[in-house]
Each structure stands twice: as C-alpha cells, then as structure tokens.
Amino acid sequence: MKKGDHLFLVDGSGFIFRAFHALPPLTRKSDGLPVGAVSGFCNMLWKLLTDARDTSVGVTPTHLAVIFDYSAKTFRKDLYDAYKANRSTPPDELIPQFGLIRHATRAFNLPCIETEGFEADDIIATYARQAEAVGADVTIVSSDKDLMQLVTPNVHMYDSMKDKQIAVPDVIEKWGVAPEKMIDLQAMTGDSVDNVPGIPGIGPKTAAQLLAEYGDLDTLLERATEIKQEKRRQAIIENADKARLSRELVRLRTDVPLELGLEALILEPQNGPKLIGFLKAMQFTSLTRRVADACDCDASAIDAIDVPVEWGAAARGPDLDIAQPEPVAGGIPDVAGESVPVPAKANGANGREGTFLPGDLAKARAEAFASLPFDHSRYATIRDVATLDKWIADARDTGLVAFDTETTSLDAMQAELVGFSMAIAENDKDPTGTSIRAAYVPIGHKTGIGDLLGGGLADNQIPMRDALPRLKALLEDESILKVAQNLKYDYLLMKRYGVETKNFDDTMLISYVLDAGTGAHGMDPLSEKFLGHTPIAYKDVAGSGKSNITFDLVDIDRATHYAAEDADITLRLWLVLKPRLAAEKLTTVYERLERPLLPVLAHMEARGVTVDRQILSRLSGDLAQGAAALEDEIYKLAGGRFTIGSPKQLGDILFGKMGLAGGSKTKTGQWSTSASVLEDLAAAGFELPRKIVDWRQLTKLKSTYTDALPGYIHPETKRVHTSYSLASTTTGRLSSSEPNLQNIPVRTAEGRKIRTAFISTPGHKLISADYSQIELRVLAHVAEIPQLTQAFADGVDIHAMTASEMFSVPVEGMPSEVRRRAKAINFGIIYGISAFGLANQLSIERSEAGDYIKKYFERFPGIRDYMDSRKQMARDKGYVETIFGRRINYPEIRSSNPSVRAFNERAAINAPIQGSAADIIRRAMIKMEPALAEAGLGDRVRMLLQVHDELIFEVEDADVEKATPIIVSVMENATMPALEMRVPLKVDARSATNWDEAH
C-alpha cells in the first residue's frame, strides 16, 4: 500500500446486528433456515461495493476488508471481568447466520478478518493506523462511536445506513470534543451497553465541558478538588480509578498481530459466478438477479454451491472460527476463480513465498516475456486428425488456448477459412507459464496449379469436413478460455461456418482498456512493446503489390511459421496484460463494456442493412448535376477554368490571383486550402470559397456514398455489412469502416437523402432510437449543475433555458437567434471551444464570443470547476475517467509544447463526457438483445446499426408497437443498476421504411 491508496474497513459485526434488527425475519423457503441477517448483510455489502466501485459516487477504494469479532473473550476481559457481562446471548435464529455471513463475505471476494483475543474495533484501529502511516486514506464503514477516536484528516467514518461521512468536524459537532479526546470522554461517561463503568453522573455534555476546561482526563483527575460543584467533584474523586480503567477498556489497540498485511486487502474484481452460487444457495432471488445483471452472468447457468450450516455449540456466534483461505501457492485466482501460474520462487507483496498479488504477477510476467526468445523451429504443423485431437484435449486440460484463423480476405463476411493456429501454455513443464507451444492446422491450402479456381487442395492437410466439427467443439466449449487478438473478425468468420465462439478474451480489447490513448493496440505494436519482438510481416509471407497472393496459396511450412507465431504472441500478450486489469482496477470496464459487446457487434455486422441501388443511382446523378452547376459558378467567380480539386491551383487563385487575406502556407510551400481556411473565408463574405466548400461536400457525398455503396453490397446477402472497431478511438466511441456509415452528413439535405437509400425489407420497418442531448445530460450529471439538472428533470428546452439564464430573455417567445447562440455555446463548451472558434461559428466578434463564454461560466460555475478538475486529474494521473471507470490516457498533458499541452487539456475535458456517452450506449447494446429475447421478440427485432448516439433496428411490421417501448426503456435505463444518473436519459424513437424518415 502506498500514498494515494484508499482503504475501506467494514465493521462486519456492526453490519450483522444492523441487518438483523433492522429487517423483518426471513427464512429460506426450502428448509426454513433463518437468513434475514444474511440477506440484510449481503444487500448492504452489495450496495457498498457497487457504490465503492462507481467512481461517480464518491471515493473509490483500492483496498477493502470486512472485520469481525472473533469471540466474546478478549484482553479486556482480563482487565475487567464484568466487561460486556450484561450482554445477552444472541437470539437462536441469529446463531446459524454468523457462519453464513462469513461465507458470504468470501463469496463477495473480500478478506474476512478476525483475530483471537481482540475485538473487531482493535483490528480496524490497527489497519487504519498502518495505512495512515504510509500515506493512504482510510474509510471505516461504521457509525459506532467507539471508532470515532480513530478519525483524523486522513481517516474518516461512513454511516452506510444514513449515507453520511463522519469527519473530524462531525465528531466535534456531535460530541463537543475532537476525536483524539473521545477516549477520555468515553472513559468519563462509561458505556452501559458494554458495561464500561465510567464516572456516575457524568454525561457527554458535562464530560466535554470538563475536557475543554482541563484539557485531558489525567489533568482533570489531578485537579478534581478544584471543581466547584460538590456532587460532581465528589463523583470524580471517588471514581478516579474506574475512570482510568474505563479509559483502558475504550482505548482501541493499534498493535494487533495481523495475519494479513495491508497489501493482502487489495480490492479484487467481483467473481460473479462465485457470488451467484452462494446467493442461489441462500435463495436470494432479487439480489441474484441484480448481481447477475451487474456482473454480466447468466444466473440460470450457475448452480447453487453447498454452504454448510452450523447450529448450537458449533456456531458460537462471535466465537465462530472459520479458517482464512490460504493464498494459492504458485498462482493467483483470476477473475474466473481459477489459478493462473506465477513464478514459483518469487516473493509476493505479502511476503509469502510463491504467492502473488495482481500487480506482482503483471510485473513478473512482463519481465519474463520481455526477454523470452521465439523459437520458430518448435512450431508444429498439424496434418492429421489424431494429432489435432491430442492438441484439443491438451487445451481442454489446460483450460486455456490462444486461437487465430488464416483466411483469404480481410472481409470476414466473404473470407474463406484456410487454416487455424493454436498456442498452449505447458504449465506441467514450467509453472511460470513461459513455456508455450504453438501449431498451425492447414485445411484449405491450394496448389495454385491446374484450374481457373486456383488449383486443387494441397496434399497432407486435414479435410475441412473433419477439422470443422473439432474446431466447433473447441470454440464452443465453455470450459476452455479462448484467447485471440481482434477476436471479432474470427468470431464473425466462424459464425458463418456455424460456430458460436464461447468463453473468450481479446488481447486487443484488454490493451485498449489498459492503455487507450498511449499507442496502437494491434498485434505488431503490442508485441514490440511488451515482448520486444517484431512479428513476421504478412507481406513477407504472401507478398505485396502485384506479387501478392491470397493465404490459401502460401506454402504450408511458411504459413506455419507465420500463423503459429501469431497464436504464440497472442498467448504471451494475454499472460502479460490480463493481470494488469485486476492490478489497475479495470476488470469491470473490460468485463462490462468491452468483452460482452464483441458478439453483439459481430451479430450486427452479420445482419447488415438493405440499401436501394436505384435510389443511390438517382442520387448520384443529382449530385453530379449539382456539382457541375457549382463548377460553372466557380469558374465564373475565378475568372477562368482550373482544376478545382487541386489544392495548389486553388491556393494560387485565392491568395495569389485574388489576393484574399488570411492565407498561410504549408510545409511544402503551397497555400493551405483546408476546410477550416475555406470556412473562415466564406464566413468573411467571400463567395468563391463558399462555392468551393459546397462543391467539395457534393463530390465527397457522390464518391464516398452514392457511387461507392453499391460496391459494398454483398453478393449473397444483398445487404451492406459495415465493420465496427471497438478499439480505434481513445474515448470508447465505436468507429465504422468498409463502408463508414457514421459520417453521413445529417445537417444537409443531400446528406439526409443518402439515408433514404437505407431501407427495410418488405414486411418490416426500420426503428431509429436516438439519445436526446446525451452529452449535455452527462455534463449535467458529472458537473452537478443545478440549473441543467433541474431543466432536464422538468423536460424543458435546455437551449432556451440556457439562453434565458445567460441573456435574461424569457423562454416564451424567445427569438430563434438567441436560442441558436445558446445552443452553440452549450455544445461548444463540451468540446472546449475557444472565443475564436465560437466567434467563427456565430459570425460575431471574438471579444463578444469571449464575453459569452465568460458569462456562461459565471452563470454555471460548476462547469468551470468540472473542467479545471478534469485538467488537474489528467496532469496528476495522466488520465481521466468516464462515469463507468474507463480510463482515457493523455501522456502528453505535461508537454513543454504549449499547443500540444492545450490540445490535451481540451481533450481531457471532453473525453469523460463523450466517453461516458459512448459507455452508456455500449451498455444499452449489450442489454438490448436479452431484453428483446425476454419479450419474445428475439427473432423478429434485429439491431442493425449504431451511429454514435443512435441505434437502428429492423422490425417486423406487426411488432413495431411492442418493440419500440422496450428499445426505449433499455436505452433510457442503460446505466442501471451500476449507476443512477442525476438527470434522466431521453430517447426519441420513430419507425419508417427508410432511415431518413425514421430518424
């Protein structure tokens, strides 16, 4: 543990009695077992963990433990035999629940700590002081006054029932003394519950007054004869020894011998199956459902575990002794609960030989693989079924296999499977996990000789009819974790062959979660970065340019070196990167936002969308005519013909021949004619630049969409299948390619016309469901702006409200120009717009734009605070976070180059907003198909496209009315149950036969 970490210490015993006394009795339906306290405990702990892991709620712990009383017999009994003697034995119905609650704690993947001879409060005090000593912060989850003596500027308490933080000022306000004087105050007042004697007749208020006058208990007792009130003076003098004894009883020990050190309390990722197995055993249906949803688990596929129940003498209440689970020797549990190998002789942070924490494991593996050579001579070519069966059996025994396909095309919708490679870690030979063997299985290589189709199959391969069933069994076996790099391609390819890949990890997505913004996530850069190895280039195997051949024509021996190396690299990358997710507290981001979205996108890509060729052809002609008309106008304005698409010729005309101001030259010495330059000239009133901008827009629409889209229509499905990338933006936004369907202009009439070509098939409608102003809603949530929050809650026009706030103009009858300016400011602020940028956008003076921005921040000061905090976070940590904990890294935020630094600061402001919006729609997409299936619409409602804040579905006509509210509900509640937004999300949904009319 180090400075900056945050330790949560949960008073488990306090949780138990709160749960038991606050809730009505509850028994397990199957056998009548009392489980009310267990239920309350689990719900309290689940809420605490959910809030704790949610960075938008408050502080986020790095370490957490639940502390229990071991027994009623402690060192205090030796000091005073009557200590707690007046406490009655626990109720019979509570006794069996003590042990169950300890089982529950471990099911939550949390340390369950108790020490013989000491109370839970002493253990908490010891951990708190140890953590404070190394500079960490501490939150004690309890409202017990006995623990208030521990409160310091770095140690707080948290009353989870009242959702209230207890800091130094709160202790003073409640008790009249600072936390360090709570021991003396309690020594004077005593405690009837614990049978601490104290001084009769002295209550908290009197004790506080005496301590304020005399300073401390010792001084008070020494000067007791000076007290004027006779009765009070006599009571203090006569009970001085009781006061001193009471002080030792209430003083918490900070030297408890602890079996687990601070590093062992690191907050591990939630193990969904493990927790669900326990909850199902307890028959807690509602909590099971919430946990399954939050952990993205299929509860129906998880069996209840066997939880022993101890009654009577075997269950001694606080005396219950359940041994702590020993750390796994030579390994550490991964998120699935299995053991993964670590260097056997290395010492972990907890000092135990052969045991590692996630950070240790990540570091050890990175060091091991950074210098481990690749031996291509060891790669095998699997040419017979018996050998393939043996490799698959070994993969099943190991439970882990890296997998990659080799095909004839980069288009997964049209590629043919040529072969596949596997890599397996030989843990039985080397427990460090660094001994890896890899192989390639050729199944579709051709000779390239003989016929027009590329030749017959090469000899000595496993026939497709024999290999495919075995590959299907491997990929669909949920007991084997399949690891791939950019798995979505392989997933979609194999889906076309009737194989649904199950239980997988993607090294590209893991890298993206860990290091978004710091570099590329492709195999080659990752290999060079983490393994110190440059992979074999594809062109070195298949050639390039005119000599390029498809992979099915590559020599099998050469193919083996290339393909097996890919699998080898993938497995090494997984071994290096996967532990970092837990070490860096990013497992939840990967498990909730990345991994489950992969099959969703693959299914969407496989479905595709219908595009009307005739509409595109007609639009192409219209655009050509429009561009031709503009060309004539441009030539007249320029005084002659020239190549409009030539930046050099255009620059010479604008800044040479016409002598327009504001020109600048590029590094090549040519005049810059970028879009921003032309827009600035157009805004200044020059007609020729405006015509050039319009001409560029029309010709781009024609070349990029109306002319190009027909070429993307699949020859078999007759639909267009775009490809989504999960890891190409820094903020979590998806990108679309081949073709890019996310950049079709919607603010121009021509752009909207292109959307009319995207149509539903006969008997169906397209439903477009679009988040309304989601980024402004996210801003209102994260910056906690009361005016914006209230406006969204009331459903008012947010831009009109902003204009009213800024310009003191009534909303009713507001001029459209005033609202337009407010709208520009609202959206501009999100992107860190400057006065210069706003001036250009609104065609006003820069000084006036600067005044607008200044006034905006004066009216909404929370936004400036938010922006400053994000910039500071980026400077301090090198990254910012979305509301779901996604990290966006900005390594150049401290650059000495002012322009680079300013760019990173603007990005750091916008990224949490844009990234949070992206995370929200990701969650909606992940939840959508299960929700539709539950409503019986799984086969009749198909999610086709995602375009930033919009989802497009194809729905049978008869199901439109039923499907629409389900789609809207899923999207509007996408943040739940992980996060409840301060402002409501709103989705607009419409249906039509084409995309434009539905939008």
Automatic annotation (TrEMBL):
Residues 5-268 form the 5'-3' exonuclease domain. One of its GO terms (biological process) is DNA-templated DNA replication. It is an enzyme of class 2 (transferase). InterPro entries: 3'-5'_exonuclease_dom, 5-3_exonucl_a-hlix_arch_N, 5-3_exonuclease, 5-3_exonuclease_C_sf, DNA-dir_DNA_pol_A_CS, DNA-dir_DNA_pol_A_palm_dom, DNA/RNA_pol_sf, DNA_polI_H3TH. Residues 399-583 form the Exonuclease domain. Pfam families: 5_3_exonuc, 5_3_exonuc_N, DNA_pol_A, DNA_pol_A_exo1. Keywords: DNA damage, DNA repair, DNA replication, DNA-binding, DNA-directed DNA polymerase, Exonuclease, Hydrolase, Nuclease, Nucleotidyltransferase, Transferase. It catalyses: DNA(n) + a 2'-deoxyribonucleoside 5'-triphosphate = DNA(n+1) + diphosphate. Residues 751-959 form the DNA-directed DNA polymerase family A palm domain. Residues 379-582 form the 3'-5' exonuclease domain. One of its GO terms (molecular function) is DNA-directed DNA polymerase activity. PROSITE patterns: DNA_POLYMERASE_A. Belongs to the DNA polymerase type-A family. PANTHER family: DNA POLYMERASE I, DNA POLYMERASE NU. NCBIfam families: pola, PRK05755.1. This is DNA polymerase I.
